[in-house]
Q: What sequence folds into this?
């Protein structure tokens, strides 16, 4: 196995593109190094991207925020402007693992690990975030929801590396929230995760919304019917019930030791309701 | 596999070592540098017994490659005491009997040290959540939490 620490993204993508087989990007390593302990795992090349300029930075721009691929999750909650703008994204990222894991794990890694239960991914989808991807053919941007294609699988081509997550600048009176259910107090894999991002109009009604669910399908779900249930409402009981029903109906989960299909579908609706109430309260304060 | 030459700072000392590309920082500390305080409990980032502080953040050294240490600043349990003078956390762990077998103790101490550096006056809940990545199968955690609270109070200049 070879370990490389390129100084530029061009060198990093060239290394990944030129690798014969089993090449992996290393940022926080909290998934990769665990996989490396497995006898079945083989790596020929590891490309550590942490020395690339800007990859460890959160940058505020006119368009929003650029979160570099090597920024540890713990750093998200230390950025006051990011917390104010996207509290749901930050609370989702901060649910990943222990303090020790938070010091290393990244949201790009959470995305590329492509677990259906990834905590930060529904929040990023609800926030309408995009992934900035560098590759041998240049740079492109895709919606976060288009990166995972199924459990453990992503849409990146050979040689491509996600450089950063791009979060938009939120509209006035906009806020997001993320909730997950686990059967213990912390440090577990989501049974269901629900993210809601909504904006309020001048009259206090919801003018825009995005609702995303995790752990209830092979990949993250953006539930448009759930968003439609919220838009135009003041988050009254009828809107909340329509939201919950839309989320339960959209869910297509598996049965496993964490929960049955029936249970997950029910919890998806309950969590979406509560996340919507939190986002609504936060948006009113903005 | 060709070995990688790494230059880093551990407990304020410049340290140079050679390691294999797939060797973890934990293995480097224990097997190459003789720093045996960090323990391998699980090797997969679940137990926290290998906790070390890298560039100010507490991490599981079993989930860091030795090669990644290049140019970084690393703190391990061996650097916690000042000569023969124990760190307040170490002293309070002894006073409160916050350890039995001791395997988890270096990890708890490093994680607690990192907590008190960012939050000198944590609540019991904050301590318990911060230390949730450190597993102890002996003490039941209460004595550990009380030791951290007591050490924090002393470090804030409050008499216990």
A:
């Amino acid at each position: 196995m070879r370990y490389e620490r390129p100084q530029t993204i061009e060198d990093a993508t060239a290394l990944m593109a030129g690798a014969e087989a089993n090449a992996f990007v290393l940022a926080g390593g909290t998934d990769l190094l665990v996989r490396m302990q497995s006898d079945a795992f083989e790596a020929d090349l590891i490309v550590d991207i942490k020395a690339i300029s800007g990859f460890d930075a959160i940058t505020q721009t006119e368009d929003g925020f650029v979160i570099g691929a090597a920024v540890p999750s713990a750093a998200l909650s230390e950025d006051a402007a990011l917390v104010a703008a996207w509290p749901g994204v930050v609370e989702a990222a901060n649910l990943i693992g222990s303090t020790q894991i938070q010091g290393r794990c990244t949201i790009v890694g959470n995305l590329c690990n492509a677990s259906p239960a990834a905590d930060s991914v529904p929040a990023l989808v609800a926030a309408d975030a995009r992934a900035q991807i560098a590759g041998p053919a240049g740079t492109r941007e895709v919606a976060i929801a288009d990166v995972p294609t199924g459990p453990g699988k992503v849409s990146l081509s050979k040689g491509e590396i996600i450089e950063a997550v791009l979060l938009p600048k939120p509209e006035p009176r906009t806020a997001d929230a993320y909730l997950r259910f686990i059967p213990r107090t912390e440090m577990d894999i989501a049974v269901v995760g629900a993210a809601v991002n909504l904006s309020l109009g001048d009259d206090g009604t919801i003018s825009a919304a995005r609702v995303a669910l995790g752990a209830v399908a092979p990949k993250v779900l953006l539930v448009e019917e759930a968003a439609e249930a919220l838009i135009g409402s003041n988050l009254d009981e009828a809107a909340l019930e329509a939201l919950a029903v839309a989320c339960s109906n959209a869910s297509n989960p598996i049965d496993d030791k964490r929960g049955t299909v029936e249970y997950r579908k029910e919890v998806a609706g309950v969590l979406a309701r509560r996340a919507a109430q939190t986002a609504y309260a936060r948006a009113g304060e903005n | 596999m060709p070995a990688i030459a790494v230059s880093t700072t551990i407990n304020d000392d410049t340290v140079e070592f050679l390691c294999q590309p797939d060797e973890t920082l934990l293995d480097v500390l224990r097997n190459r540098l003789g720093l045996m305080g960090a323990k391998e409990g699980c090797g997969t980032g679940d137990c926290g017994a290998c906790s070390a502080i890298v560039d100010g953040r507490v991490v599981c050294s079993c989930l860091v490659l030795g090669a990644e240490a290049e140019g970084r600043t690393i703190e391990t349990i061996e650097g916690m005491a000042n000569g023969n003078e124990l760190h307040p956390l170490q002293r309070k762990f002894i006073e409160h009997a916050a350890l039995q077998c001791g395997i988890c103790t270096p990890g708890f101490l490093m994680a607690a040290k990192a907590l008190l550096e960012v939050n000198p006056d944590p609540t019991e809940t904050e301590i318990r959540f911060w230390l949730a990545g450190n597993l102890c199968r002996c003490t039941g955690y209460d004595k550990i939490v009380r030791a951290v609270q007591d050490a924090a109070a002393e470090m804030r200049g409050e008499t216990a």
